[in-house]
Write a structure and sequence with these properties.
The complex is a heterodimer. By secondary structure, chain A is mainly α. Chain A contains ten helices and two strands, in the order ααααααααββαα. The relative contact order of chain A is 0.13.
């Protein structure tokens, strides 16, 4: 049962609640790091490492961190892991460090990382949180990989660009290189590709009974800790009852007026 | 309590990061050194045995770092082009020739720096000339920044070899050379563009009428107002060329423009006929400085002074702006661009048919551009009238 639950947590982050294509989080690094597949994979893996570690640690500390300082504490934890990843990359995989540049440090303020810490890690156990981080990270990586494949192949007409430090030169794809669309490598082209992918993903997940926008569980609600209800559907029912009650009173008033006038 | 928790988390995080730093610091420094050395090798192939130079005040201000190797030097310059933060690495061999250029950091237009990196390879301090990137406007700040960086690097090479940096602008160097050749001090010169290109000479006339200076390559030979050559230990060939050029200058005959119909004397002020059948026209263009169209009143009220050398077939040999008082803005030069060689040299080798209405337009300075164009056209037309004959 536990294994099934954890598998669901993992898969949810990859497809059903993909952070980039469904939850629309982490848009900035998505657009900036998808001009080449190598850069996209580098960013995806770095973010995944930070997600797993930060979710795990934040979950471990969830009963210690007071509510009033939880965000600063999360930021300190996330920033520490980002710094650690940055130092390790600069020391041992320098080409990845170079190609990510400032975006490596900006993982600290990536919505996905802080969002999952707030929405999942602070309410669940360390193992589940780590798996959630892994799922979200892999979902982020998958989305980046799809976008970068489209943009690099159709936009630049090449593959394996950005790997000269590994001794690998970019390969120009015959025919495609001559009819490439440079616009796709620009920021505006990135937005276009992103929008199309979101549309496709939304359509696919709707058919398979994906995330129902009309009924979010408390898990995804940022105000859940302030609310004593178990589901927003309770509010919907209460609102419906209240509305019916008002209508009944108005009808009685009209009937009374008619009776009086009669 | 919350602040205690937060501080504790910060302390633990700092501790863990310092542990990671212990393991990675040396490796990171090694990688940075390798990257720097790779950049050095890229601009100075075969660079070995690095020795760091102390950058003193005698070095050009743009030079921030300097290194000496067995086979040359590498200098790092920091300049400002369109934006700040252009950092360039330049390699120079022991003979003073640029071997390679690489930008370390740039905020300039994408792609421009790559083209400019290769533009100066092979240049020395004597052969260095401004190169404009493809598509760059005549007042391109990026191109000028690269040129300034290369000038600084070459001067740094001179200083590193015990010499003195020559921080003079090309105009200042020319003025100093002319004064030295004529034996004068602080006299301004204007370029005379008679038909001396075939002799590979340039003639500069002293504004105080004390004489002329003829430049044959890097040799400057002065002639007093009495036509006597100034003492100068120049090579015989250079002297011969200078002598021939002087003959052309001295034999020039000013024509009476009233003897010809159809010449716009408002624009064309003088025409000189030279022995070889070419002409020199002095024109005064109506730019922004004057009421060109009646709608604008310029600041200076002065025209643009241009000298144009035209052959007997109506083709421009050479065009030079000798004086202009056009406009500039806080963002940079505008009409004043017409005073730069990169602008007026566009008219060289052009005929009237080549000079269309949109020829040599300066961005934001339509009146200056059109006024200049009209004056040049008037000069070509005037020469055509002269060659057709007078009004009998």
């Amino acid at each position: 049962m536990n294994k099934n639950k954890r598998l669901l947590i993992l898969l949810k982050g990859i497809i059903q609640e993909n952070p980039v294509l469904i939850l629309v989080l982490g848009t900035c690094p998505t657009l900036a790091n998808t001009t080449s597949m190598f850069q996209a994979v580098s960013m995806g893996l770095a973010a995944t490492a930070v997600l797993v570690c930060s979710n795990f640690v934040i979950s471990l500390l969830r009963n210690i961190i007071p509510d009033s300082v939880r965000i600063p504490c999360y930021i300190v934890v996330i920033a520490s892991f980002v710094t650690a990843v940055s130092m390790l990359l600069e020391a041992y995989v320098e080409p990845v460090y170079s190609i990510l540049g400032v975006w490596l440090s900006l993982i600290t303020v990536n919505c996905i990382v802080l969002g999952r810490a707030e929405m999942f890690a602070r309410k669940n156990g360390p193992i589940d949180s780590a798996i959630d981080g892994l799922g979200m990270g892999l979902g982020f990586l998958l989305a980046l990989l799809i976008m970068s494949t489209i943009r690099e192949i159709l936009g630049a007409g090449t593959i394996l660009s950005g790997m000269t430090d590994f001794g690998i030169e970019a390969i120009k794809i015959p025919l495609i290189y001559s009819i490439r669309i440079p616009f796709l490598v620009e920021s505006s082209g990135g937005f276009l590709v992103y929008g199309i992918l979101i549309a496709i993903m939304t359509k696919l997940t709707e058919k398979k009974g994906g995330l129902k926008r009309k009924d979010f569980s408390c898990e995804g609600c940022p105000s859940a800790h302030l609310c004593n209800r178990t589901s927003c559907s309770e509010l919907t029912e209460l609102a419906a009852d209240a509305s019916n009650g008002n209508n009944a009173n108005e009808t009685n008033t009209e009937t009374k007026e008619v009776s009086d006038n009669a | 309590m919350p602040s205690v928790v937060l501080c504790s988390i910060c302390l633990v995080a700092a501790l863990l990061l310092s542990v990671i730093n212990i393991f990675t610091a040396e490796k990171i420094l090694d990688n940075q050194d390798k990257k720097t050395n790779a950049a050095f090798t890229e601009v100075l192939p075969g660079a070995a045995n690095k020795e760091t130079l102390t950058i003193t005040e005698s070095y050009p201000a743009a030079v921030t770092e300097g290194y000496k190797f067995d086979n040359g030097f590498v200098f790092k310059m920091s300049v400002s082009g369109y934006k700040d933060g252009l950092i360039i690495l330049c390699g120079i061999d022991l003979d003073g020739k640029i071997t390679g250029v690489k930008h370390i950091q740039t905020n300039e237009t994408y792609g421009m720096e790559t083209e400019l990196n290769n533009a100066y390879v092979g240049d020395t301090i004597d052969s260095l000339e401004l190169v404009l990137a493809t598509g760059a406007t005549k007042n391109s700040k990026s191109s000028k920044a690269y040129y300034d960086a290369m000038t600084a690097a070459l001067n740094a090479y001179v200083v590193a070899n015990g010499g003195e940096a020559d921080n003079r602008t090309p105009e200042e160097k020319l003025k100093d050379n002319c004064n030295a050749a004529l034996g004068t001090t602080d006299v301004d010169f204007t370029k005379w563009i008679g038909a001396t290109l075939s002799l590979e000479c340039e003639i500069y006339v002293a504004k105080d009428n004390s004489g002329i200076v003829i430049a044959v390559g890097d040799t400057f030979i002065g002639y007093g107002s009495d036509g006597v050559e100034k003492e100068n230990a120049a090579a015989a060939d250079d002297k011969a060329k200078a002598g021939a050029a002087y003959e052309i200058y001295a034999s020039a005959e000013q024509l009476d423009l009233s003897a010809y119909d159809g010449i716009d004397t408002d624009l064309v002020k003088e025409i000189w006929l030279l022995d070889d059948g070419s002409y020199v026209a002095k024109v005064e263009a109506r730019g922004y400085g004057t009421e060109a169209s009646g709608k604008y009143s310029g600041k200076s009220g002065k025209r643009i002074f241009i000298e144009i050398s035209i052959d007997g077939d109506g083709k421009i040999i050479s065009c030079v702006t000798t004086e202009q008082n056009e406009t500039s803005s806080p963002k940079g030069p505008m009409g004043t661009v017409c005073g730069e060689p990169s602008y007026y040299e566009q008219y060289n080798n052009k005929t009237s048919a080549d000079i269309k209405d949109d020829f040599a337009q300066i961005a934001g300075s339509t009146i200056t551009s059109n006024g200049y164009r009209d004056a040049v056209r008037a000069a070509i037309n005037a020469v055509a009238k002269v060659t057709e004959g007078g009004n009998g």
